[in-house]
TrEMBL record:
Pfam families: Abhydrolase_1. The keyword Hydrolase applies. It comes from the Archaea. This is Alpha/beta hydrolase fold protein. Keywords: Hydrolase.
Length: 266
């Protein structure tokens, strides 16, 4: 099992193929396992998937479960792997990590960015119309993480998919419950209160924003906000997907991603 030691954590990763490096970043409590359908892109590109610390098959460290630390881990990983001119694909929290990375390190390593199903801020607050929950709801999730993590997992799964078989739901459940409850509480809270509205316009590379239109976890308008406020962005709608278009419509997602890279990033 290939791992890379960065910032005191052993991170699991997989790398296949040659060409433009395409780095996939997963969502909160998820893992790189959900990008299995994207491995076929290794016929054209170097496909790299990575598990954040505490997630998937990476080390379950006691500390470091914040978006700033995940971004520092990403920078150390890219540096250790000698990766530059990458196309970064962030799904859900993976996009938040990408924006945090831009805040800390800029975009010099990027030749393109793909944001899948994420808005700049999840928390409801005055002057922001795309929040999906308030502090009371967030408090409830924090309590559930400590008292009934299985119920928390199923509550997420019910909102993520449109119509996928039980086997896919079970895979999601297995990965979510692989994350220890203390880590779940720490990173779920941190990623829920971070606000990247000021960072989004700093992404100055070609950008593809992917929106699952049958979305119940986020607001479609929040995802559209990203394409409207990124300097050089295009929006792709997936009408038969919820929160996971790369999993729900993998062939079309791969074709869209490949076309974007070929047209804008090579």
């Amino acid at each position: 099992m290939p791992t890379e030691s960065v910032n005191g954590a052993e991170l699991y990763y997989k790398s296949n193929g040659d060409g433009v490096p395409v780095v996939f970043l997963h969502g909160v409590l998820m893992s790189s396992r959900f990008f299995n359908e994207q491995q076929s892109l290794s016929d054209e590109y170097q496909v790299i998937t990575l598990d954040f610390r505490g997630h998937g098959r990476s080390e379950k460290t006691e500390t470091g479960h914040t978006l700033p630390q995940y971004a520092r881990d990403l920078e150390a990983f890219l540096d250790t792997q000698d990766l530059s001119d990458v196309v970064l694909v962030g799904w859900s929290m993976g996009s938040l990590v990408a924006w945090e990375y831009v805040r800390q390190f800029g975009t010099d390593r990027f030749r393109g960015f793909v944001s899948v199903e994420q808005q700049p801020l999840d928390l409801k607050q005055e002057g922001y119309e795309h929040g999906v929950f308030g502090f009371d709801e967030l408090h409830g999730l924090m309590e559930l993480a400590q008292t009934n993590p299985h119920e928390l997992a199923w509550s997420f799964i019910e909102e993520m998919l449109v119509d996928e078989p039980d086997s896919v739901e079970q895979t999601l459940f297995d990965e979510i419950t692989r994350v220890p409850p203390p880590i779940t509480s720490a990173i779920l809270f941190d990623q829920s209160v971070r606000d990247y509205r000021e960072v989004v316009p700093d992404v100055d590379v070609p950008t593809l924003v992917c929106l699952g239109e049958d979305e119940t976890m986020l607001e479609n308008g929040g995802v559209e906000y990203i394409s409207d406020n990124t300097v050089d962005a295009e929006l792709e709608r997936f009408t038969n997907s919820g929160h996971c278009p790369f999993l729900e419509e993998p062939e079309r997602f791969n074709q869209v991603l490949s076309s974007f890279i070929a047209a804008r990033c090579e």
